[in-house]
Amino acid sequence: MNSQTEKIRLQGAAGVIEVQRDQPADAARGIAVIAHPHPLFGGTMDNKVVQTLARAFVSCGWTAVRFNFRGVGASEGVHDEGRGECEDMLNAVAQLAPEGPLAIAGFSFGAFVASCAAEKLWAARDVRQLVLVGTAASRFSVATLPAEAHDRTLVVHGEADDTVPLAAVMDWARPQSLPVTVIPGGGHFFHGQLPLLKSLVVRHLRAGAA
């Protein structure tokens, strides 16, 4: 993301996991682990939306951890339709954020994986923030979030998303009474609207820290 980005190699269930970590200027308030879009459609940790999420977390005092799912970049293994990818995210959390305040975030397929990881971690960890962007609710079984997580959760979706229709996200959110923030005219990749996306995430994180 910048010249100070730290490159790390972890050992996961499928082999090496490629990671990049960015630190805030001052002592971190916690560690955010961020998941990227679908590996079979070009998704990597360098995706612009994923980098925007990382920048938002760093600007709010969080350490931001991005990683490549198995089979992407230098990460070993092969795509596992979400099961192994959730395992990859849990491995990244266990090794780089083993204790203390934790945030979980993801974009598209990564938001689906993040929801699964959050579901598994919620009872055992201090999950302070959840940020789910362009959640792939039309393609995968996105986890239901605990009711007590709702105040800590930001769900953002583009009104004109033609990859994951807004209606699919609303169908997932409605039974939970989980609010969804809609960016008017926004597409799946938020072209031209990444500054707005960042400002929405920053506003959410600052409200949670207040």
How is this structure best described in words?
By secondary structure, the protein is α/β, with parallel strands linked by helices. It has a single domain (6-209), classed as 3-Layer(aba) Sandwich (Rossmann fold). 30% of the residues lie in helices and 22% in strands. The chain has helices at residues 48-59, 83-96, 109-121, 166-173, 194-209, and strands at 6-12, 15-22, 31-35, 63-67, 102-107, 127-133, 153-158, 181-183. Strands 1-2-4-3-5-6-7-8 form an 8-stranded mixed β-sheet, with helices on both faces. Helix 1 (48-59) runs parallel beside helix 5 (194-209) and helix 2 packs across helix 3 (109-121). The model has no long low-confidence stretch (mean pLDDT 97).
Name the poorly predicted regions.
none
Beta-strand fraction estimate? 15-25%
Radius of gyration equals 15 Å
Could you say what the CATH architecture is? 3-Layer(aba) Sandwich
CATH superfamily: Alpha/Beta hydrolase fold, catalytic domain
Please outline what is shown here.
The chain is built from 5 helices and 8 strands. It has 210 residues and is of the alpha/beta class. The chain has an 8-stranded mixed beta sheet with strand order 1-2-4-3-5-6-7-8, with helices on both faces.
Primary descriptors:
210 residues, 8-stranded mixed beta sheet, Rossmann fold, single chain, alpha/beta, 5 helices
Task: Lay out the secondary structure.
Blueprint: E1 6-12, E2 15-22, E3 31-35, H1 48-59, E4 63-67, H2 83-96, E5 102-107, H3 109-121, E6 127-133, E7 153-158, H4 166-173, E8 181-183, H5 194-209
Parallel strand pairs: 3-4, 3-5, 5-6, 6-7, 7-8
Antiparallel strand pairs: 1-2, 2-4
Helix pairs in contact: 1-5, 2-3
